[in-house]
Write a structure and sequence with these properties.
Blueprint lengths: L7 E4 L2 E4 L10 H5 L2 E3 L2 E6 L2 E5 L1 H14 L8 H14 L5 E9 L13 E8 L9 H4 L1 E9 L16 H13 L4 E5 L5 E4 L3 E6 L2 E4 L10 H12 L4 E3 L4 H6 L2 E6 L3 E8 L2 E2 L7 H14 L10 E3 L3
Parallel strand pairs: 8-9, 8-15, 12-13
Antiparallel strand pairs: 1-2, 1-7, 3-6, 4-5, 4-6, 5-17, 6-7, 9-10, 11-12, 11-14, 14-15, 15-16
Bound molecules: ligand PPE.
Length: 308
């Protein structure tokens, strides 16, 4: 999806015009993927734009930086404030937010610690991640031939730039097969996640999702959906999911900041349940959007209004 330009990008503490937010081609990050990032959404509410899961996203950004020994030269509070300021400055009603911290230009060679740490916050308007109609009709997906990284190779729980080559392989393979997305298994053969989404399976009235040990990113939307499912009275289980449970399932859906709650209607050409959006998926979507668009009280304190 082409990026729709906003006016400015927050770059190392200053607002820079969109087209001027540039870096040198010998920046460390370009060569070795040395970055950490977040994807956050702000939704349009009656009180103006409100950021969903602001502090959990900021916390995860700092966690990702910590595990690659990257010191972010701002406090969490400063990053949170800068995110809100960028949304105000770009006058968005709703937007996607991409904080990115990376190693810049100084020395090359894999050893990264001489390079300066640079911080960026970009915002733009971004619609349905998996295509128009995905949220209602669902998407067609397949199990990828690629696996998520083994737990002793990279760190799935962290959102590190270089790790997204694995995601790129999975999504390119899926698109080459005419599918919207791939479901990637972990190295033990259990279901892990999509290239940029967590996954949920509804089977026999119980809602399952893979545990953190299945090489997943600990999604903020995943936590939100687990909470909503509990609120709605469904039993939820974080446990390993064998591949065939995908085919046995009554409903399967993805969650993510970009993907929100996207139903899956076929997997490997087999219909999931009745082959469309299932009733529990719809119920979770309805509850999710009612809260984040301000039509129902934000009872868990998930939203941070940008103008207060
Ligand atoms: N797994 C992966 C690998 C992932 O990238 C995401 C987010 C998730 C799960 C869901 O996490 P959360 O957003 O906290 O619920 N993917 C982001 C980037 C997508 C992109 O194409 O870039 C996102 O959804 O913003």
């Amino acid at each position: 999806m082409p990026i729709s330009k906003a006016e400015v990008i927050w770059f190392n503490g200053e607002f820079v015009p969109w087209d001027e937010a540039k870096i040198h081609v010998l920046s460390h990050v370009l060569h070795y993927g040395s970055s950490v990032f977040e994807g956050i959404r702000a939704y349009k509410t009656e009180r103006g734009p409100a950021v969903l899961g602001l502090m959990p996203h900021v916390d995860r950004l700092f966690f990702s930086a910590k595990v690659i020994r990257m010191e972010i030269p701002y406090s969490k509070q400063e990053i949170a404030e800068a995110i809100k300021a960028t949304i105000r400055r770009n006058r968005h009603e709703a937007c996607y937010i991409r904080p990115l911290v990376f190693r810049g230009y100084d020395t090359l060679g894999v050893f990264p610690l001489n390079c300066p740490v640079e911080t960026v916050i970009a915002t733009w308007e971004w619609g349905a991640y998996l295509g128009a109609g995905a949220l209602e009709q669902g998407v067609d997906v397949g199990v990828s031939s690629w696996r998520r990284m083994a737990p002793d190779t990279l760190m799935a729980m962290a959102k590190i730039g270089g790790q997204y080559v694995n995601s790129q392989l999975a999504v390119m393979e899926a698109r080459a097969r005419g599918l919207a997305e791939g479901i990637v298994l972990d190295v033990y053969g259990y279901v892990s996640e999509g290239s940029g989404e967590n996954i949920f399976v509804v089977y026999d009235g119980i809602i399952y999702t893979p545990p953190l040990s299945a090489s997943i990113l600990g999604g903020i939307t995943r936590r939100i959906v687990l909470q909503l499912a509990e609120d709605l009275g469904y039993p939820v289980r974080e446990q390993n999911i064998p591949r065939e449970m995908l085919y046995a399932a009554d409903e399967v859906f993805f969650t993510g900041t970009a993907a929100e709650i996207t139903p899956i209607r076929t997997i490997d050409g087999l219909p999931v349940g009745a082959g469309g959006r299932g009733p529990i998926t719809k119920q979770l979507q309805d509850e999710f959007f009612a809260i984040i668009e301000g039509r129902k009280p934000d009872r868990h304190g998930w939203l941070t209004p940008v103008y207060e």
